[in-house]
Design brief:
The protein is of the alpha/beta class and 400 residues long. Helix content is 31%, strand content 16%.
Length: 400
């Protein structure tokens, strides 16, 4: 597997957040942020210098992460290793997390494929909005990958704006914690990985974890992959606003009369973002100091496969635009085959099209199972337009 970064040859890290060692940036108040109409250069440090080496990406990534937490998602708490325990019985992995005098518990059922080897095997974690995996599960089972459906709603509720601050994450950290529900879900995925690291009886390799989800849970899957460097493969499916869509391009499309979800609408629909996100940026989208090309970029240099549909509400041009610009991050890091984007129409929302099966399997074999050699270069749309002359004023560097 090709790759770069603080982890192994495939970019997968041995820790959740390698950027914890980097200097913490001082960020301005939201009201003081200047307008920026195109998509920021992800390789430009906050001090104005541009990184020139792959080794510098870790601390640039940490700056982007800090901005996302400060302005959009809220912070993801770190958890001491000794505060997470796991137990495995039957097919159930139980996870216990302590914080001070408080503790919470939750579990997932791990479904190993028939004939799975006795050595540790890869695992796909699917966020559970649909109660089942919306990708083609046979791709995983036929390649020796276990699967688990994670009840993310139990960790952070998403049943309307009034559900903010409810769920097991908030039982532990308090209902007024500024983290969004999507950060709560990402925190839950990370605690599953913590427990797997301590529970060899589960027969799962904690360095070969994939995460997926569709629609609102596709947003969550991207957040989970962006915020934990131990996740090898991230597959957000039809994630739209707050996922693979560009806030700026979606707002411009809405201004032109398209029926596309904007920042102000998404921020008010569910507690997916921090409570002040809509107030700070709903009418000031261009003042956001990043966009979702950089949220996707938090996954780099690990593997990311973005699957989208031709549905106007998701942002047909917006998602292809953000995906195309995000791809330049992997280009700059020298691993363009580790990020793919494919928008394909002609099917219902979250119905996986058979035409994408071969590409999905190529990503699973190369970046999750290991040893795959099929071509993973894909940057395709079903008639969408990415006007990069309008939305992108930088070119990717050739990092040393």
């Amino acid at each position: 597997m090709g790759g770069s970064g603080s982890g192994g040859a495939d970019g997968v890290g041995s820790v959740e957040d390698s950027g914890a060692r980097c200097a913490k940036p001082t960020l301005p108040a939201a009201s003081a942020l200047p307008a920026y109409e195109t998509h920021h250069d992800p390789f430009l440090m906050l001090d104005g210098s541009r990184i020139t080496k792959r080794s510098e990406w870790a601390c640039r990534r940490a700056e982007i992460k800090a901005q996302v937490e400060e302005y959009e998602s809220g912070p993801k708490p770190s958890v001491a290793r000794e505060n997470v325990t796991g137990a495995f019985s039957g097919k159930t992995l139980s996870i216990d997390v302590k914080e001070g005098a408080k503790s919470v518990s939750f579990s997932i059922d791990i479904n190993a494929p028939a004939g799975a080897p006795s050595g540790p095997i890869p695992l796909l974690i699917s966020l559970a909005g649909f109660g089942f995996i919306t990708l083609d599960s046979s791709v995983f089972s036929s390649n020796g990958v276990a699967t688990a459906v994670f009840n993310n709603n139990e960790i952070g509720a998403q049943s309307g704006g009034g559900s903010r601050g409810t769920g097991k994450f908030y039982d532990l950290y308090g209902k007024d914690h500024p983290a969004s529900s999507m950060i709560a879900w990402a925190w839950g995925v990370s605690r599953i990985i913590d427990a797997l690291e301590k529970t060899p009886a589960a027969n799962i390799d904690p360095r070969r974890i994939a995460v997926t989800g569709c629609s609102r849970d596709g947003k969550g899957a991207l957040t989970a992959g962006a915020f934990d460097e131990r996740i090898a493969l991230t597959i957000p499916q039809e994630s739209g606003a707050g996922g693979s869509a560009s806030w700026r391009a979606s707002q411009a499309a809405s201004n032109a009369g398209e029926n596309v979800q904007t920042l102000s609408h998404a921020a008010g629909e569910q507690p997916w973002f921090r409570a002040d996100f809509g107030a700070n940026f709903g009418s000031r989208v261009n003042n956001l100091p990043f966009d979702h090309h950089m949220v996707m970029g938090l996954v780099a240099p690990r593997a990311l496969l973005v699957l989208d549909n031709e549905i106007d509400w998701l942002g047909i041009d917006s998602t292809f635009t953000a995906g195309s610009i995000a791809h330049a991050i992997w280009e700059g890091l020298g691993v363009p085959d580790m990020m793919g984007y494919w928008q394909l129409g002609g099917h219902e929302h979250c119905q996986f099209p058979a035409a994408q099966r071969a590409m999905l399997e190529a990503y699973v074999r190369k970046f999750l199972v290991g040893g795959g050699t099929d071509d993973t270069h894909v940057l395709e749309s079903d008639g969408a337009t990415a006007d990069l002359d309008r939305w992108m004023e930088w070119t990717p560097p050739s990092l040393e």
